[in-house]
Amino acid sequence: MSILKVENVYKKFGKNEVLKGVGFEMEAGQVLSILGSSGSGKTTLLRCINFLERADKGVISVDGEVIFDASSAGKMSAAQMRKAQLNFGMVFQSFNLFPQYNVLENVTLGPKLLAKEMPNYRADKKKIFAHIEDEAKEILDRVGLSDKLEHYPCELSGGQQQRVSIARALALKPKILFFDEPTSALDPELTGEILKVIKTLAQQNITMVIVTHEIGFAKHVSDRIIFMDNGIIAEEGTPEEVIDNPKHERTKAFLNLVTQKE
Q1: Where are the alpha helices (DSSP H) in 25-120?
Q2: Average pLDDT over residues 235-252
Q3: Among 58, 59, 82, 174, which is least packed by CB within 10 angstroms?
């Protein structure tokens, strides 16, 4: 059974149709990279799956359960939407950390807010929070930040801030981790730092969808590649099929342009 199934998703902003019937499936533990030029619909697709935007048409299922159907989306309560969103963790282009909180506080904020809904929250608050902090420290160690727990975002490099945002997403224990061009705001040295972290997560069988322009990285870390053009999936397959032997003319043109820039 697919962990994520996206069916016939459409999204329009005004008269501009950004997504035109996009659909794909992926299995647990897979890494799916989405390539395409600016304006092809990559980020909008992620935002629709993660409910940061609401698709005009389409169905989204996780583990065989429909969590969004545009035909009845207006009936979803705020609580239902929040529960559906918890299937996904999101790492944005910009780090979006809370400047008033230190590293550990940034990572534990979400889990602590969710803990308030636990039936034993009032009686076991200290024990629950201690467990959340222990788990956060373990995650921060995995991304190489165990020595930065009390540092504030302004005291960190861009690469370190992005690693905090990855840890924050992991702390909510999502079924699928989304990355929206996670290295676009970083210089080449820090880009390598983040790609190394993502490669490590891939080796740990964490299910990921990555929007990226890093072609070499996508080729070596991905199980499957999607190439988007003008709101549709123009090509899909293994890295060898899409990157080494593309069939669609737009895929070929894009890869040639990116290779020349590199």
Answers
A1: 42-49, 78-85, 103-115
A2: 95
A3: 82
Secondary structure (3-state) at 215: helix
Check if the beta carbon of residue 234 is closer than 8 Å to that of residue 248: yes
Q: Residue 39 and residue 48: Cα distance in Å, rounded? A: 15
Q: Which two tokens stand for residue 50?
A: 């993660």
118: its two tokens = 């636990």
Q: Which secondary-structure segment (H or E) carries 20?
A: strand 16-26
* CA 50 – CA 209 distance, rounded (Å): 11
Amino acid at 130: A
Mean pLDDT of 66-73: 92
The span from the CA of 210 to the CA of 77, in Å, is: 29
Nearest by Cα to 167 from 132, 191, 192: 132
Give residue-wise pLDDT tens across range 157-192.
999 999 999 999 999 999 999 999 999 888 888 899
Low-confidence winner among 33-42, 65-74, 134-143 (lowest mean pLDDT): 65-74
Ramachandran class of 184: left when φ > 0, alpha when ψ lies in -120 to 50, beta otherwise? alpha
